[in-house]
Amino acid sequence: MPKKIIGIVGLNKYQIFSLNKKYAKVEFIDVRDDNFFHKKTLKINALIVLYEYPVKINLSKFLKNKHKEFKYLNWLHLTRAGVDECEPFMKSYKFKFTAGKKIQGPNVSEHCVSLLLAITRGLFDQYRAKKYSFRPTEINGKKIIIAGLGGIGDSIAKKLSNFSSLISSVDHSFSSKKYIIRNYNLKQVPKIIKNYDIIINALPLTNKTKKIFNKKIFKNMKKNSIFVSVSRDQTINIKDLKYFVKKRKFLGVAIDNTGSFRMKKKIIYDKKNNFLLTDHLAGVTTDNNRRIKLVFENIKAYISGKKVNYAVSKTKGY
């Protein structure tokens, strides 16, 4: 029986050598842009992408259409949380698909809370002006609704529960949690959004969530509410958001930009509207242990014929 071949992206030669030594019945090969579609790579049974920079050119081609050339592939793992790039093509994937959709919870949730605190405490306003125009407010006792209660949204909820805030959620597969008062579905959002002081967007990007935060939602939000987004920009109608920002609808807005705003700096603050932008910094962290641990746990499970963790649903798109 021929050896299974596992393609690895992002490990060094010594790490690949160690894997080959540890799992003698499996062959691990280094995959990069220059050998992505070579004859041997096309025979791999699994493709694990730990870091994407070695396949920056060809990974998107593979995800969109060229995966069909990999006749023996039965498992793909991406360590990123967002897999929206794959959604239009996911139903044609004949292999199992896993991702790091939960391991980003700690770093992205911390970024979300820091954005929220920067807005509520008026940190940028106080730092840059001798006389600040914004008077800080508190999260304590505020009504907060978190749209999207996956690994990231749930981690945000846990953190904010320690601020003695009143937390609700929007999630279609909700299970009871002691720190969540009430849960809604997406269709209910336009009616109930007016009841909340702080709205946090942590939704996955799917066909159902594209531009879900639009004129209808923003119009119904409470005057002087706060809007924070650590989701993909495509879940927001940016034109509608800018309109309501200019109309002074919000006490403050904070967005971790994933491409919809042009940024010359990593952090931009608009004092006039208390509007804070960070340049897709939410996922950045020095603590990559969770990512590496998941990869090696899943490799062990795959070789042993056991279930790999964090499967992506091809019907839900995340």
Which helices and strands, and how do they pair?
Elements: E1 4-9, H1 13-22, E2 26-30, E3 46-49, H2 59-64, E4 75-78, E5 96-99, H3 105-120, H4 123-128, E6 143-147, H5 151-161, E7 166-170, E8 182-184, H6 189-192, E9 198-201, H7 215-220, E10 225-229, H8 238-246, E11 250-256, E12 267-270, E13 275-278, H9 289-304
Question: Which descriptors would you attach to this protein?
Answer:
318 residues, alpha/beta, five-stranded parallel sheet
Explain the overall architecture.
With 318 residues, the protein is α/β, with parallel strands linked by helices. 26% of the residues lie in helices and 19% in strands. The chain contains nine helices and 13 strands. The strands form two sheets. An eight-stranded mixed sheet has the order 8-7-6-9-10-11-13-12, with helices on one face. A five-stranded parallel sheet has the order 2-1-3-4-5. Strand 3 (46-49), helix 2 (59-64) and strand 4 form a beta-alpha-beta unit. Helix 3 packs across helix 5 (151-161). The model has no long low-confidence stretch (mean pLDDT 93).
Quick overview:
The protein has 318 residues and is an alpha/beta fold. The protein is 26% helix and 19% strand. The protein has helices at residues 13-22, 59-64, 105-120, 123-128, 151-161, 189-192, 215-220, 238-246, 289-304, and strands at residues 4-9, 26-30, 46-49, 75-78, 96-99, 143-147, 166-170, 182-184, 198-201, 225-229, 250-256, 267-270, 275-278.
The total count of helices amounts to 9
- Rg, rounded, reads 22 Å
User: How many β strands by DSSP?
Assistant: 13
Shape verdict:
elongated
Q: What share of residues are in beta strands? A: 15-25%
- Low-confidence spans: none
Secondary structure class reads: alpha/beta
Mean pLDDT: 93
Largest sheet: 8 strands, mixed
Strand order of the largest sheet: 8-7-6-9-10-11-13-12
Percent helix range: 25-40%
The span between the termini is: 35 Å
Order of helices and strands: EHEEHEEHHEHEEHEHEHEEEH
